[in-house]
Amino acid sequence: MSRRTMALLSQWTSRVFSVDMDGETVYFKIHDTQTGKGGKEVLRMFGNIQKGASCYSLLVSSGEKIHSARFHWKLKDKLSTALPPQCRFSPMCSFLPGVRDSLVHGYFLQAPSSDSSATTERLLRQWLRLDDPLLVCSYLHEENTPRWIQHLWNTEQNHGIVPSEAPESHPATLNLINSDVFYSFQAARDVLQKCADIIPEAASVLELLPCDGDMEARSKPDFPIIVLEGLDATGKTTLTESLRDALGATLLRSPPPCLSPWRARFDQEPPILRRAFYALGNYITAQQIYSQTSKTPVIIDRFWHSTAAYAIATAVNGPVCDLPAEGSELYRWPSDLLQPSVVFLLTLDPEERKRRLKDRGQGETKEEHELDLNQVFRLRVEEAYKRISGPTCISVDASSSAEQVLRQVLLLIKAKRYL
Ligand SMILES: Nc1ncnc2c1ncn2[C@@H]1O[C@H](COP(=O)(O)OP(=O)(O)O)[C@@H](O)[C@H]1O
Ligand SMILES: Nc1ccn([C@H]2C[C@H](O)[C@@H](COP(=O)(O)OP(=O)(O)O)O2)c(=O)n1
């Protein structure tokens, strides 16, 4: 048994478990059945489970963050292909309330018939024999009672299940720092360095990064640095190009074009790798800004706001009120990342944005497709954008014509004396 598994087991009864089932998150804890404290109340989730179904939970118990994240990511494909088609699986996690980095991810499985449960059990036992970093439990309905028992494999421990209240902050916020959002160049670079031997593309990205010495704070830029932010199709590209022409500025973007060959590769990886890649893109763009800002104003298409807002809104997967509260340290600007003079956040009515996406006729990224399907995700991204601290961020209604939006932004730039 690995050290990480032993550590998890030693905290087992203090942990809260959560399952995302049918758009709802159910939290539960366990109690020692021997003491009679066990759950008299049946969880709604378990109450809804089909009679005769067998249930299992799998939690990834690897101690190494990147390995654990990649294993969890691939486990989803493994479950979709290997499980009998009638089996359902839902995302689940376990955490110690309020304890940073205590979150572990996994899946909750339901096998509706004895056949499917026999196949599922066989598979799980096979995977465990392969030394997969998994903690497996089965859930048993205690006969003639409304109680469910959690049976922890390999330890033969049984515990009763009791409902638990939702934690004060969304469990994903416990592990956000350095797994979803990176607040320094070094923290993001560490992730790529650690996986360079398994992902050759990471080595290519590392070669493009600035040296440590280049990251030191520079003197105040001579010309303004203006960032345009907003969801896809809000008009960023259109406006950045017209601002470039109107101000005689240099136009840059993040991620920078030199990272394009590797973007699709990192988009397929779990959040820790994907978000580290985008975080590093900002530092490369920052170097390019430094080399231009003594000569011309600089306009940038997406920067840190995009990196942090999409990362937070993806990790925290509930309603907008589940986001970290305004003022949370999770919205802070990385202390070693250049701060622009101003950020304009383009906002657009969802219907108009959809119309523009359609008119543009381009394939959407998977994430953008999800934005359409998932209005709540879109709302979370927009709200997270607004909560990020650091440079002044001004929301601009981008629903009028391109010329009017340009005029409005030029007026703001002049009125606030950014030029
Ligand atoms: N103010 C505007 N009014 C109407 N259409 C616009 C406006 N700004 C941009 N568009 C159109 O909407 C689409 C998306 O704009 P684009 O600048 O590519 O957005 P983004 O860079 O934010 O994805 C494009 O087809 C563009 O021509
Ligand atoms: N500076 C940046 C830019 C984009 N990202 C991420 C955030 C989202 O996952 C995607 C959004 O990119 P998308 O391709 O949809 O955006 P555009 O087409 O450039 O408007 O990229 C980032 O993390 N940091």
UniProtKB/TrEMBL annotation:
Its EC number is 2.7.4.14. Pfam families: Thymidylate_kin. One of its GO terms (biological process) is dTTP biosynthetic process. Its main location: mitochondrion. It catalyses: CMP + ATP = CDP + ADP; dCMP + ATP = dCDP + ADP. It is found in: Mitochondrion. GO terms for cellular component: mitochondrion. Gene3D superfamilies: P-loop containing nucleotide triphosphate hydrolases. Keywords: ATP-binding, Coiled coil, Kinase, Mitochondrion, Nucleotide-binding, Pyrimidine biosynthesis, Transferase, Transit peptide. It is an enzyme of class 2 (transferase). SUPFAM superfamilies: P-loop containing nucleoside triphosphate hydrolases (SSF52540). It comes from the Eukaryota. GO terms for molecular function: ATP binding; dTMP kinase activity; nucleoside diphosphate kinase activity. The keyword Lipoprotein does not apply. Belongs to the thymidylate kinase family. This is UMP-CMP kinase 2, mitochondrial. It comes from Hippocampus comes (Tiger tail seahorse).
